Amino acid sequence: MDKLKSLVKKIVFTFIKPPVVQIYNTNSQAGEDKIVEFLFKSKGIQAIRYIDIGANDPIGHNNTYLFYSSNSSGVLIEPDTTFISRLEAARPRDTVINAAVSTGSDTEAELYVFADSALNTLSKADAELRQASGLNKILQIKKVPLLTIAQVIDQYMEKCLPDLVSLDVEGVDLEILRSFPFEKYPVPVWIVETCAYSEDHIKPKNTEIIDLMLSRDYFVYADTYINTIFVHQNWFKA
């Protein structure tokens, strides 16, 4: 029977080509943007407002470029001056801020800069850990201005709640989320890096971030291991 089925398929597909599976392009590290795009479209939302914290490259491994390319816009926050001109040139509709996001009242911090910009961090402990491995070296320590996410919303979002916040700040994500006023700003969707730094593919999962978001009325919509997509329950059910 299996041989007969195989023969029939061979004959049929000689004259009728099998359907082509379309591979959808993604700019995110692990397809997070396509997951979130599906979520918004399922809610009938075509254009969104976003805040991208730790924007880095304007296109590659970027969680918000897909939305920008579909006529959405928002705010890009990047502490490394190296990327500012590239962000402004590639995404002129977005507001680009050369700063880092703080967890309190401090107005300035030290940014530890590596050759691989994806490793840049405000955490001295994380920076020293990466350098101690012998695989990475701190190239520079820069002073950068600080803003809170609440300040960004109030000053740059015209007091409108962003639909999406992408958070990737290498080592201080949990501290930032702990200080964020969720009740005042119930952002519908967050993309947050929830795996810790590692020299190989086995990256410890930061379950504290997940527990915190669950306690703030969010649920895990999807997880790509690198990032977790959190959705506010009330927004999702509305």
TrEMBL record:
Keywords: Methyltransferase, Transferase
Name of one Pfam family that matches: Methyltransf_21
GO molecular function, one term: methyltransferase activity
UniProt keyword annotation of Methyltransferase present: yes
Methyltransferase FkbM domain mapped to chain residues: 52-218
Signal peptide range in chain numbering: none
GO biological process: methylation
The protein's name: FkbM family methyltransferase
Gene source species: Mucilaginibacter calamicampi
